[in-house]
Amino acid sequence: MISALKIPPVLREKWQQLPERDRRMLSVLAVFLLGVLLFNGLWQPAQQRLAVAERLYQQRLELAREMQRALPGSSRELTFTPLSTRLNDSAMAAGLDLQQLEVDEKILRITLRGDASRVLLWLENIEREGALFQSLSLEKNDQLLEARLVLNGV
Predict the structure, then answer these.
(1) 79-101, pLDDT tens digit by residue?
(2) Any bridge partners for residue 137, and if so which?
(3) pLDDT category, 28, cuts 50, 70, 90?
(4) Which end of the chain, N or C, is surrounded by fewer C-beta atoms within 10 Å?
């Protein structure tokens, strides 16, 4: 390995004069130092740049989410539509059978039935949209789930 390099004759002679054990130790030391230099010079800075880029990406992703929430969107448009109309439309879109829909002053009574997972998903979605439950009862009827709701704010 060393003979392939252009080494001045004086150094080559000194190398040959060293005992075999010392030459092997110096070779191991050279390989170790080369590894340390590569780690500190290439690998570590690349990992640091990657960590900085990941942090920047997460910050921008969170900023994009905040901007999306701040944009006037469908949730603000829905506030102009009466709650009874929104609930009726969303129940129909979810494939639920709306059996009763009564409006008394500021109270809304709804009875609907459908597949249990669809009913529960629909209930979760309307609660996220801001519906305030006054009461809720669920009853298994054949293979379907029947939900009776009383909501505040028409």
Answers:
(1) 567 777 888 888 888 888 888 88
(2) 148
(3) very high
(4) N
